[in-house]
Amino acid sequence: VAVIGAITAFLAATIALVQNDIKKVLAYSTISQLGYMVFAVGLGAYTAALFHLATHAMFKALLFLGSGSVIHAMHHSLHHLHDHETDPQDIRNMGGLGKKMPVTYITFVIASLSISGIPFFSGFLSKDEILASAWAFGSLKGGLAVLFPYIGYGVAALTAFYMFRLVFLTFTGEPKRSDIFEHVKESGWNMKLPLVILAVLSTWIFFAWNPFGPSNGWFMQSVKTPHTVVGDNWYVFGAAGHVAEESVAAAGALGMEMQELLEHTVHEVHTVGMFVSLFLALSGILVAFLFYTKKVVDVDALERRYKPVHRFLLNKWYFDELYEKWLIVPGILLLTRVLNWFDGRVVDGAVNGAARVTVIVSRISGWIDKYIVDGLVNFSAYFAGFAGLVVRKFQTGRIQTYVAFALLGVVILFYAFY
Predict the structure, then answer these.
(1) CB 162 within 8 A of CB 286
(2) Quick check: 79 and 185 in contact, CB under 8 A?
């Protein structure tokens, strides 16, 4: 679980580095932060994972609403210019918007500081817990687990860089297009008020009185890790050098012991880890500032120089192409074959079978119609004709014959009933 979370956090962060659509940057940032949460769950830091989920809800909602405010302003300006070709979400068409949209700018910076893990913001509290847990996990378990804190801290640096790349390209510097900039204006209070509220909720004060001690805050005190799910023996592996086979009955006690060991180790590395995290976050912000505000490096030339890498990240590590080549195309081919077999054997078989049954039934029906129905009708006609011929014999037209038949009938009746 930790491996999947770490890979997700890292891959999504690298993809966000090169995106130019303001919403895409935030979308891949969200994937990366969700990877952080899964990463924490895999480390056994369940409370930290839920804590980051709560803090992330605040600052990421603020970021998306802030981007919506920017896009709304860009739409308004482009509509005024009758420009329907320019992408209002492309940060390469922005720049300097902080001068026209101060509330959106300030609240967006607050959210960016929070997600970057800067002190006095909520993201610092939860991310610091996850990174300290990663450090403790690696030191206790050893092996490849020692890579976990490096990945966690690396993603923290990348997060700070791509978020402030977004901030600097969108809100600072000279406008990329002066005609668009001229007609941009701040959103109304129906859009600004939620930004201000979420900005307040993105600070430390809502989650803990101590900006450097989240463990004493109401969230960490309210949500406790169930010890019965911590007894997965990974601490025993690191401490004793082998995996201990514990019974289910002992899992609760073992989980409590291991959880206490984790918490103790987290407490030991917390201070150093906090300074490392802060240093990396500030470094990421500084590099973004030097690249996109001071322009100490020609970013366009850098992208051209490392074009394969840039294209690789811009195309999302070619996951879409891999999915298409190894999953979608083979899957569609297999599905096509299955459907072709089903169509030929089942559907066509049912249709052809129904046709054969129809032919057989029609033949039987024809035979019945010809030999039974028509036979009965023809027999009735024949019998009626034959009866007519027989009866005609008695119709001679002579009165003597009729009297004779009448007397014969009387005699027969006399003998029959006498």
Answers:
(1) no
(2) no
Per DSSP, 188 falls in state: P
Residue 265 pLDDT = 67
115 contacts 203 by C-beta, under 8 angstroms: no
Distance of CA 315 to the CA centre of its chain: 19
Domain boundaries, the chain: 2-314, 326-417
Per-residue pLDDT of 164-207, as tens digits, reads: 999 999 999 888 888 888 888 998 999 999 999 999 999 988 88
Q: How far apart are CA 32 and CA 13, in angstroms?
A: 6
The token pair at 312 is 């690789």
What per-residue confidence (pLDDT) applies to 254? 43
> Which distant-in-sequence residues (6+ apart) come within 8 Å of 180 by Cβ?
74, 77, 78, 81, 83, 86, 93, 94
Residue type, 296: V
pLDDT tens for each residue of 43-99? 888 888 998 999 999 999 999 999 999 999 999 888 888 888 888 999 999 989 999
Note whether 38 and 4 are within 8 A (CB): yes
Q: pTM for this one?
A: 0.72
Q: Which of 1, 149, 175 is nearest to 73 (CA)?
A: 175
Task: Return d(Cα 214, Cα 237) in angstroms, integer.
Answer: 29
CB 225 within 8 A of CB 232: no
Instruction: Quote the CA–CA distance of 206 and 340 in Å, as a whole number.
Output: 60
CB burial of residue 352 (10 Å; 0-12, 13-18, 19+): exposed
User: Residues of the chain whose pLDDT is less than 50?
Assistant: 230-254
Which residues have CB under 8 Å from 270's CB, separation 6+?
Answer: 128, 132
Q: Taking the CB of residue 287, how many other CB atoms lie within 10 A of it?
A: 17
In single-letter form, the type of residue at position 350 comes to A
Which tokens sit at 354? Answer: 């129904």
Distance between start and end Cα atoms, the chain:
114
271-to-96, 211, 256, 268 alpha-carbon distances in Å = 38, 13, 24, 7
Tell me, what DSSP letter sits at residue 369? I
